[in-house]
Amino acid sequence: MLEKGIDKKSIFDKLNDYQKLDLKYESGKILGSMCTKPDPIAMQAYKMFIETNLGDPGLFKGTAIMEEEVISSLGELLHLNNASGHIVTGGTEANIMAMCVAKYLFELRSNNVPEVILPKSAHFSFKKIISMLSLKPVYVPLTDEYKMDVSKIEGLITENTMAIVAIAGTTELGMIDDIEEISRIASSRNIYLHVDAALGGFMIPFMNNENSNKLNFDFKCEGVTSMTIDPHKMGLAPVPAGGIIFRHREHLELLAVKTPYLTKDNQTTIVGTRTGAATAATWTLLNYYGKEGYREIVKKTLDLTKYTYKKLKNMEHINIICKPELNLISFTANNIPVDNLQEELLEYGWHVSVAEYPHAIRLVLMPHVKKEHIDAFLTDLNKLIKKE
Ligand SMILES: Cc1ncc(COP(=O)(O)O)c(C=O)c1O
Fold first, then answer.
1. 148: CA distance to ligand 1 center in Å?
2. Model pTM score
């Protein structure tokens, strides 16, 4: 730290230099991120509430009301009346909260090591959770469609099963587990079921194609106990905006810790001080777009995914891993190893990511990605493949 501060102009010159090093979503070059350019109206709301702290909600009563309204709207979107939950920093924190609740419930009946049944496709946040909460992971293999193999679940349940986790929109491929069937198993065995819909939560309710009309993935399934749904992914909110929704208020209250020096008696979040700006941004987006607006956003994203899928499918040497269910497409090229292809694409300025299972190039078609970006990307990809 400097002994004596420097002038504002020098500071902002330096900030501009740093900012120039950052990638911009609007460049269209970011093809592997689950976050996107926040909507301008959300940024306006965010700035308006930037000084708020929902860790001390008695001081920021209006912002606290907005959080309740956001949780209630997200609950309603996911077929739940009287939802409880919070706007948190992201999917990781939301998943941690759900697993904490499941562990506290488990501890009411057992001193054994709690086991969590989860698909191999679960986000790496669960690796952190398993370590932090000293859980025993019980991994369920995936089907040929890269979904949790439901037929294996019953055989993995023991008296120490603390929870089942299912995913609505896997991180690597965007696949949606058969939540209806998993919920049936969880209900019949009275097991806590958490659905990680960090990505899918802001997509599946707005998809009106034949597939999703049939898709029951939320609290409509009686066995679903809690859900993660992230506004800072397909909700278009600025980071940090994750969402955790609990079916039962008593479950959220298991997280309560007394907060003697603050304006409310207790806190049910993991973090203490937390921004209300993300809540204000999410409240704004939900009210500004409504279901109709989000349907349009999701449709555009899925239309571009279909377009990209068809083009890739017809490209020589390209093998697509599976038909997309959401806005992710993964593929390999039979003449260039995945990691080399990623590096070569980077030389053209394309920031794609790589899926681990199966090892493949992974594209995420978030709303900042437009058709012209995809056309330019496919032209470069084609050049690289032909060159080999
Ligand atoms: C399915 C899923 N769950 C959880 C997360 C973690 O979210 P975050 O990075 O916001 O903590 C992600 C992130 O990509 C995800 O895809």
1. 17
2. 0.97
